Amino acid sequence: MTDLSLYRPNAGVVLFDPHGLTWIGRRYRQAGPWRWQWPQGGMDAGEDPEQAALRELHEETGIRPELVEIIDATSGWLHYDFPPEVLAQRRKNDWAGQKQKWFAARYLGTDADFDLAAVPPQEFEAFRWERLERVPALIIPWKRPVYEAVAERFERFAG
User: Fold this and answer.
1) Nearest 5°: phi and psi at 14?
2) Separate counts of helices (H) and strands (E) for the chain
């Protein structure tokens, strides 16, 4: 059994548009083929996972909580291990990887409401709406099993 205390707490949002497509962002100034992901980020001490997910959504996309409706969440934590090359860059802490709680949210706004530079430092440089089942193949391979589990959990919301 995995000791989840060794994993950094993290929360994320899968944002669904009225057609059942999901919002994905292209990471800011990142090279390589694996630049896309859903909004996600670390939780602050004492922060509730849903609050953290909504905060991260705002910080990374400019979208405020009143423009989303939470419709589901993963049960328990999903986790992934950092690969050796990432662990070597993360000497500031001892996390083995990340444990994540994911939320499905219905988006109530328009594309004009997104402001990717609203909260520095900028996380994404572009976004698009994508079919849920296509997103895991766009994700860096070591995060992919979590994305596959999230896509399976939220598939009933996909168009």
Assistant:
1) -105, 110
2) 3, 8
**Domain coordinates of the chain in residue numbers?**
14-157
Please write the tens of the pLDDT for every residue from 16-54: 999 999 999 999 987 888 899 999 999 999 999 999 999
Q: What distance in Å separates the CA atoms of residue 136 and residue 88, rounded to the nearest whole number?
A: 25
Write out pLDDT tens, residues 122-137.
999 999 999 999 999 9
Alpha helices (H) in 64-110, listed in sequence order: 84-89
pLDDT score at 90: 62
Exposed, middle or buried, 88 (CB in 10 Å: 0-12/13-18/19+)? exposed
69 CB contacts (<8 Å, ≥6 apart)?
105, 106, 108
As beta bridge partners, residue 103 has 13, 73
Helix or strand or coil: residue 14? strand
14-157 maps to which CATH number?
Answer: 3.90.79.10
pTM passes above 0.70: yes
